[in-house]
Amino acid sequence: MTLDMLPGLVVRIMSVSTRTGTPERREVAMQDPRIRITHVGTYVPTRRVSNEDRLAEFGFDAEFLRKKLGIAMRAEKEPAEDTSDLCVAAFADIERRAKFSRSEIELCCVVTQNPDQKVPHTAAIVHHKLGLSKGCMTFDISQGCAGYVHALALASAMMERFGLKNALVFTSDPYSKIVDPNDKGTALIFGDAASVSLLSTSGAGYRLVDATFGTEPGTTECLHTRDGALKMDGASVLFHATHEVPASVRSLLAKNGKTLDDVGLVLLHPGSKRVVDLIRKSLQLDDAKVPFEIAEVGNTVSSSIPLVLQQHVSRKKHDLLMLSGFGVGFSWGTCILQLQNDEEKH
Hints:
Domain Beta-ketoacyl-[acyl-carrier-protein] synthase III N-terminal: 139-216
InterPro entries: ACP_syn_III_C, ACP_syn_III_N, Thiolase-like
Number of helices: 8
Oligomer: single chain
CATH superfamily of the largest domain: Thiolase/Chalcone synthase
Protein name: Ketoacyl-ACP synthase III
Largest sheet: 9 strands, mixed
CATH class of the largest domain: Alpha Beta
GO molecular function, one term: 3-oxoacyl-[acyl-carrier-protein] synthase activity
Keywords: Acyltransferase, Transferase
Shape: globular
Helix content: 25-40%
């Protein structure tokens, strides 16, 4: 019997501290290596809204757009498109990429804080629109920009606990529903998009090695809605992101006996160019290792990480990836993904 045959264990490992030179004990969560992200599908609306056209209106200049915001265009859904419609469009993309049967899906979850309606949950609506099986569990996760990492952890844990073989994790949070187009603090930031990740026990892909999460007490007002419109304390978000995210990345790597040199890419939630640049600087990493790729779509909330992850899951170039999302709450989630080939023994 090998450790891979004992999923869900917390293994105690003895190692030598690089700081003190003395033996120390650390605990590493062992996740079932059969559960992998095998494919990612995405949908970005074709409609674009230019930020350059509104700079003067808000008192910004081109340098602000280039150096701090980093978003020239924002994707925006059509008025008739709802949250579940974006999910269905992302599913159409993954169906073109992956071979699986809808009848094989046993779990369907949607990360959103802007559902179609209050009742029922959006995952149930997506389930109906896709014609998934009666035995498929459905639920929503009310999380923001950290939602994708939370959803991966929850879906993987439920698959492991209940012996599920295939799950769909959707992200769809069209902030165009709640952003005030005249609000200087939010109008130029957010874009609409959706993603779906296929988690499966068959096929090559990236498995969740470990994750860490947190919520800073007393910070719920840094991102909230008032009278149906989004309000953001940008300075507070920037402060907590640049303090908590680097710390979570370092602590998770140390817990798993890894360093940033072992990681191929660090995929941060791209809240803005300034926040990504500051976190990148704190971690002492270059642009190539921490990509920022939202100039033409905007900050798409929980969809921002999977939009970038899609190409890397497809290429399977890097052995280790790190994901870190942060935002509403103020909360964050950071995880390590490891490439696992189908031919490897379980």
